[in-house]
Amino acid sequence: MQSVRPQISRESDSDDMSYTLGIDIGSTTSKAVLLKDGSHIEASALVVAGTGTDGPALVMEAIRAQSGIGREEIDFCMATGYGRLTLKAADAEMSELSCHGRGIAAMFPEVRTIIDIGGQDAKVIRLGDRGQMMNFVMNDKCAAGTGRFLDVMAGILHLDISDLEKQAALAKKPVKISSTCTVFAESEVISQLAAGEEIPDVVAGICSSVASRTAALVKRIGVKDQVFMSGGVAKNGGVRLALERELGCAIAFSPFSQMMGAYGAALAAWQKIN
Ligand code: ADP
């Protein structure tokens, strides 16, 4: 499967256009997608500030700045994500599971298994032949196996989260992280650095640790082709490749992977008014 960027429509607007907004308020980021007439992505934005911050307001401002469309011109606003119940501007809310499923089924209809790793949880969703959600499993109890684990480790290593992929690719002899808890793994990584392990080897070990936890989750539901990764951790090639090795299958992703929940919410908003 190819990585596809959705088409962004830039035609001049007229009064009979209908706009729907999907807004995904996560633990670490706020994402929004503005759809015109339920199909064209008119604008999309991501702000690294999640629930309980001004992230939701900022992401709506970013949508207005890109498209010239503000809340008053939006016919339906659907909120999703961890902070979805807090958004006063929303007309309704919907679970992230439903929104990721909807968004991915619409953009990549061949996908049957979704692996969504966000800032504080990981979910695996099985889709049916018509894109309907058949089953899911999730880990929302433990930070290990989520973006939070990667964020904490990047902090210890004084690396930007976006540098983990490059570092993991340079590994010669990846270390093994045996602790199953983020707090203990933090001490383990500090000990490994003190013992002289190379940073790329430590990063590869960190990515593999997240991958093996995720693989255990995926195996509870089973792998069915095509497998697609959504959520912010899909941007981390170190985790993606380690997960492909663990599962023995190709994992597709898109530059839009982190926006899938917001996209699905915007599609659901369109369905509400049609
Ligand atoms: P949430 O919806 O819970 O806020 P996201 O799906 O937005 O979560 O994912 C956030 C996670 O994505 C972060 O914890 C981080 O680990 C990861 N992430 C975000 N941006 C990048 C990037 N550029 N490269 C690698 N990982 C990233």
Characterize this entry briefly:
The chain has helices spanning 55-67, 96-107, 147-156, 164-169, 182-194, 199-221, 237-247, 260-272; strands spanning 19-25, 30-36, 40-47, 76-80, 92-93, 113-117, 122-127, 133-139, 227-230, 251-252. It is α/β, with parallel strands linked by helices.
Mean pLDDT: 93
Widest sheet, order of strands: 3-2-1-4-5
Order of helices and strands: EEEHEEHEEEHHHHEHEH
Chemical compounds bound to the protein: adenosine-5'-diphosphate
Alpha-beta classification: alpha/beta
Q: Count of helical segments?
A: 8
Descriptive notes:
With 274 residues, the protein is an alpha/beta fold. Helix content is 37%, strand content 19%. It contains eight helices and ten strands. The protein has helices at residues 55-67, 96-107, 147-156, 164-169, 182-194, 199-221, 237-247, 260-272, and strands at 19-25, 30-36, 40-47, 76-80, 92-93, 113-117, 122-127, 133-139, 227-230, 251-252. It has a five-stranded mixed sheet with strand order 3-2-1-4-5. It has a five-stranded mixed sheet with strand order 8-7-6-9-10. Strand 2 (30-36) and strand 3 form a beta hairpin. Helix 2 crosses helix 8 (260-272) and helix 3 (147-156) packs antiparallel against helix 6 (199-221). It is globular and about 65 Å long. It starts with 18 loop residues before the first strand and ends with a helix. Residues 1-14 have low confidence and may be disordered. Adenosine-5'-diphosphate (ADP) binds at residues 26-29, 50, 81, 118-120, 147-148, 150-151, 161-162, 231-233, 235-236, 258. The site of adenosine-5'-diphosphate (ADP) has 21 residues, from helix 3.
